[in-house]
Amino acid sequence: MLEKKHGITTPLEGIPAKPWDPTASIAAPLSLHAPTVLPAWVDYNGHMSESCYLLVFGDNSDAFFRFIGIDESYRDQGGHSLYTVETHIHHVKEVAQGEKLRLDFQLIDHDDKRVHIFHTMTHDATGDILATAEQMLVHVDMAQGRAVAMPAYLQDRLQAIAKAHASLPAPKNLGKPMGIRRKAP
Q1: Number of helices followed by number of strands (H, E) in the chain
Q2: What is the pLDDT of residues 3-29, one digit of tens each?
Q3: Domain contains 135
Q4: Cβ proximity of 81 and 75 under 8 Å
Q5: HEC readout, 87-127
Q6: Which of 36, 48, 119, 129 has its CA 20 to 30 A from that of 78?
């Protein structure tokens, strides 16, 4: 049993990444996480609280990390991890306790230090889009506290995913700025 040493955990914490199979087909988009809305995620309005959307998107990122081979052993052996440096969430519809979610993951872009990703959260039964999240991740040397290049094998895996996701359309909310839209006088 994994001893809990911190407050926030993910559903995959302590579960090692599966070995990468370079011959396996890669889904476009990836569907790696499908939670059910827990009672602790529901606020006084009777729907999932806004902070819990980020929690679920973070868990989906963790599923992606493990998909490409980043888990606790990667962190512990090399002192590296992916950190989120920016997140934009678009809340579209409410979701209630006990409802099942489906999360789709799209790799937008990457370079040797950064990964640009997009999550779409849908209601599993209706297919309605509930929220989206766009994130920029950076590969960090945790001891130095700075961005460093990912090892070649991770870059190869990201390139394979990018190739599989190249045919996907750009998400509707990708790069969408926030602001109050006003009619011209």
Answers
A1: 3, 6
A2: 557 778 889 999 999 999 999 999 999
A3: yes
A4: yes
A5: EEEEECCCCCCCCEEEEEEEEEEECCCEEEEEEEEEECCCC
A6: 119
CA distance 58 to 137: 11
Give the Cα separation of 133 and 60 in Å (integer). 11
Is 15 within a domain?
A: no
Buried b (16+ CB within 10 A) or exposed e, 37-53: beeebbeeeebbeeebb
- DSSP SS3 for 82: strand
Q: Mean pLDDT throughout 54-78?
A: 96
Of 163, 171, 174, 155, the C-alpha closest to 27 is: 163
**Token representation of residue 79:** 């002192």
Instruction: Count CB-CB contacts under 10 A for residue 29.
Output: 19
Span 44-56, pLDDT tens digits? 999 999 999 999 9
Tell me whether residue 180 is in a domain. Answer: no
Rounded Cα distance between 115 and 168, Å, is 17
